[in-house]
Amino acid sequence: MPEWRYEVGRLHRDGLTAGPCQGEPPNGDPADDALDLASLGYRQSLDRRLGGFSSFAAGFSYISILTGVFQMFHVGWAAAGPAFFWTWPVVLLGQASIALCLAELAARFPLSGGVYPWARRIAGPAWGWATGWVALGCGIVSLAAVALALQTTLPQVAPWFQFVGDGGDDSANAKNAVILGCSLIVASTLVNLAGVRVLASINNLGVVIELVGVSVLIALLALRIKHGPAVLLEVRPASRTVSSLAALLAASLASSYVLYGFDTAGSLAEETVSPRLCAPRAILRALLAAGVAGGLLILFGLLSAADPLDPALGRIGGGLPYLVKGALGPALGVPLLTAAVLAVCVCALAVQGGAARLVFAMARDGGLPFSGWLARVPEGTKAPAGPVLIVGVAAAGMLAANINFPKVIETVCAVAVVWANLAYLMTTGAQLLGRLRGREPGDAVSEGFFSMGRWGLMVNLAAVVWGVFVVVNTGWPRGEGQAAIERWFASLATLSLIGVGILYHGVTRRGRIGVLAEHVAAGATAGLSQGDS
Fold first, then answer.
1. Distance (Å, rounded) from C-alpha 383 to C-alpha 250?
2. Is there a contact between 187 and 262 (Cβ–Cβ < 8 Å)?
3. How far apart are CA 32 and CA 41, in angstroms?
4. What is the Cα gyration radius of the chain?
């Protein structure tokens, strides 16, 4: 049977050198990347055409500052007042430790699906499937959460987008958010079905507009500063019975919701030229760019507010959009809010695209029902059509089922944060265990592109500790005066997801079926792909 082996930067088969397997993105050769993919057991079936910027754009648009910060500003302010700003740098530092670990895995395993194939390669099929199951739940919930973000911006751009009620009632706002959200999911599904070329073109343009828009917005707010930095020390707990520390812990949900999804660059690895080089850089650059821009936006937003203690900053119909219109006036505020609407749309594209690649990766390993259909790639678009449809239908169905739930936005966002960071924790935890057992996550090839070296153990440990904190803190039941189902929803939803996953996997043993024959690379064998334990 033909054997593949590596030297740094070169790929060999049967003693013949195939040429440079990874170069700078402009000089990368998709044929070499296909050989690289074959060495991991899979044949090239997706359309490999994304460059370095497109890879970065996928991660950045998933985080999407103009989506997440606009959507969740009111949640952070309502929990702790202006001092919620300080949760941002803390969360950014913690997420950076996770991003470094995932960047290392992206260099080692340039495969579609992100955390699923990474966890599978380092911890075995069963653990990989469990990680993928949690990440899949996160992808669907995240798409629903992002789609709900239109409610925070569109009605303030034009009141006629408030189809239900007048914007002053939480129940009516929740219904309106679901209507707008389902409309966005339909549009996102159609674009994702068109293929990665169309997706990347729209995504790249959207990211450029978002980068320009957020830069202009930060500059304009900075020129209108009305308060000194002392206002950032104002802690305003939602209740007198809540301590300042507890208020800040609750407020960190806003920052935690925004700063995840940077690993999407790794999820699109099989559609990226030179993924071992591009994906790790894109993961880190996406988080860094979003972290700096988001921090400055919150900072100058609070300092430029007419009244940084205005209770309207903590309401769904107020928040950052209300602050921006008040600070800049309608003439400037509305165009910038329009840019935020575009950012929400592009973010939905990235979230659905990343989740669809995860479904595709699990299906071609035989890990899901109807795997043959879900893993089929149409020749015309070379995009995973079945997974795109499944993710879209599931997210829209989730919104429709909760149309009468007034707290739908906060609840869905909390679940998304818990599941995203649980999937990260399952991956970095397996990575840390491997390190402690003497199995470093790098190899001769991947270390030539990205490796943490001697800092790996310390950073990996920090990522695991941080992941545990985020999962526990976000899932912790809070909300004085709220119904028990509202306070415990994130925890109950997580236990339900895990329970269903254990039941399904135990009955079907899907995680051990192996690679479908039509996706096995020439010279490899069907069954468990190379690297599985």
1. 40
2. no
3. 15
4. 22
Query: What phi and psi values does residue 409 have, to the nearest 5 degrees?
Result: -65, -55
Span 519-529, pLDDT tens digits: 888 765 554 44
Question: Which residue is listed with tokens 């993924």?
Answer: 275
pLDDT for residue 359: 95
CB atoms closer than 10 angstroms to residue 469:
16
Place of tokens 């992808």: 139
Token pair 């293929």 in the structure block, residue? 195
| Confidence label for 177 from pLDDT (cuts 50, 70 and 90) | confident
Confirm if 177 and 411 have CB atoms less than 8 A apart: no
263 three-state secondary structure: coil
User: Which is more confident, 7 or 387?
Assistant: 387
- Work out the number of other CB atoms within 10 angstroms of the CB of residue 351: 31
Q: Which residue pairs from 27-30 have beta carbons closer than 8 angstroms and sit at least 24 positions apart in sequence? A: 28/273, 28/274, 28/277, 29/273, 30/273
**What is the spatial distance between Cα 220 and Cα 114, in angstroms, rounded to a whole number?**
37
Encoding tokens for residue 356?
């669809």
The DSSP 8-state label assigned to residue 406 in this structure reads T
Reported as a single tens digit per residue, the pLDDT across 266-305 is: 899 998 998 999 999 999 999 999 999 999 999 999 999 9
- Which tokens belong to 471? 């999962």
Please give the mean pLDDT across all residues of the chain.
Answer: 84
Q: Does pLDDT of 410 surpass 90?
A: no
Token pair recorded at residue 138 = 């996160």
* Residue pair 317/170 in contact by the 8 Å Cβ criterion: no
Two tokens at 85?
A: 């700003």
- Are 340 and 67 contacting, i.e. CB atoms less than 8 angstroms apart? yes
Q: CB-based contacts of 250: which residues, under 8 Å, 6+ apart?
A: 79, 80, 238, 242, 478
* Residues 183, 400 contacting (CB under 8 angstroms): no
Do 384 and 460 touch, CB atoms closer than 8 A?
no
d(CA 351, CA 71): 16
The C-alpha atoms of residue 282 and residue 199 are separated, in whole angstroms, by: 17
pLDDT at residue 482 tops 70? no
- Bridge partners (DSSP) listed for residue 7: 10
CB atoms within 10 A of CB 220: 17
Q: What is the mean pLDDT of residues 106-132?
A: 92
Beta bridge pairs of residue 116? none
Phi, psi angle pair for 417, to nearest 5°: -65, -45
Contact criterion met (CB below 8 Å) for 106 and 269: yes
Residue 96, CA atoms < 13 Å, CB-side half-sphere: 13
Taken in order of first residue, the domains within the chain and their CATH numbers are 4-519 (1.20.1740.10)
Question: 478 to each of 76, 250, 290, 414, how far by Cα in Å?
Answer: 14, 8, 28, 11
